[in-house]
Design a protein that fits this description.
Blueprint: H1 29-49, E1 55-57, H2 72-79, H3 87-106, H4 109-112, H5 116-126, H6 140-151, H7 155-175, H8 179-195, H9 202-214, H10 216-219, H11 225-232, E2 233-234, E3 237-238, H12 240-243, E4 265-267
Helix pairs in contact: 3-7, 3-9, 5-6, 5-7, 7-8, 8-9
Length: 269
């Protein structure tokens, strides 16, 4: 969690006020301890569900000619529900950042009513500072793109889109709903902020977001994706919703879920 979000004596535990005097639920210390409690509870629940002698984790070997293989741990991390616990703290960290940012914008008229905040941001990004030869935007095509949106007053409708999008990205990651898509769109925003010359937390969030995108199949197992992904399916495989079988679960051994792996290395309980 970000610095300062564990403190109990700085007046931020319940509903702190931001710089604009607006209360922030996602920026409270209480929210930190709530998410931490969820991580501990999920870990205890999973540990109690494991058999005393552990479970077998698959050591899948490729037999397709020309197909390269991946390390066992990497395959387990990206595709095994028993290892999904490792994604939960990472999701909470990234999601908290996006939700706090989005909440602040949603409660700010400068973002939601006319987009003056985004207008100022685009103006600052495209303006050449005194004594400099270029703006803070490195690529001329991106500078022209931002300038085009600025000249056509796109900030009036684009600012609410950004605010709502940031909040939805944060909620998706925290609740574990379509985690892969949420993380992907988060990285898209990170790239655009970086190209506009804003560093801030964007490099860290982008790097971590890429890992969550790679682990999309199980990163949301401790969340809504446990039921949502098997039900909706993937572009290459229909889910139970389209097969008329109702709601499925990603839980190993559950109806509609993956079968418990057998063979390979033993993971101790």
């Amino acid at each position: 969690f970000a610095d300062g979000l564990w403190r109990l004596n700085d007046g931020r535990f319940f509903l702190p006020e931001n710089a604009n005097g607006v209360t922030s639920v996602s920026g409270s210390t209480m929210f930190t301890y709530l998410m931490f409690a969820l991580i501990i509870a999920a870990g205890v629940w999973q540990a109690r569900k494991l058999p005393a002698d552990g479970i077998d984790v698959a050591t899948v070997k490729n037999v397709t000619p020309g197909q390269t293989d991946d390390p066992v741990f990497w395959k387990l991390l990206l595709g095994n529900a028993y290892f999904a616990m490792l994604w939960m703290p990472l999701r909470f960290f990234i999601g908290r950042q996006w939700l706090t940012s989005g909440e602040g914008k949603l409660r700010n008229d400068a973002w939601m009513d006319g987009g003056s905040a985004l207008e100022g941001y685009w103006t600052g990004a495209t303006t050449v500072p005194e004594g400099a030869t270029t703006s803070r935007i490195t690529y001329s095509w991106y500078h022209d793109f931002i300038q085009y949106m600025l000249d056509n007053q796109w900030y009036e409708w684009f600012a609410p889109v950004i605010a709502i999008g940031e909040a939805l990205i944060g909620l998706g990651l925290i609740l574990g709903a379509l985690v892969g898509l949420a993380a992907f769109f988060g990285t898209v925003l990170n790239v655009n902020f970086l190209m506009a010359g804003t560093v801030s937390s964007n490099p860290v969030l982008f790097g971590l977001g890429v890992f969550v995108v790679l682990g999309w199949k199980v990163a949301g197992y401790w969340g809504i994706d446990r039921y949502l992904l098997p039900t909706l399916g993937a572009p290459w495989s229909f889910g139970t919703l389209f097969k008329g079988k109702g709601i499925a679960s990603m839980t190993p051994g559950a109806p509609g879920g993956p079968t418990a792996p057998t063979g390979g290395n033993k993971a101790a309980a």
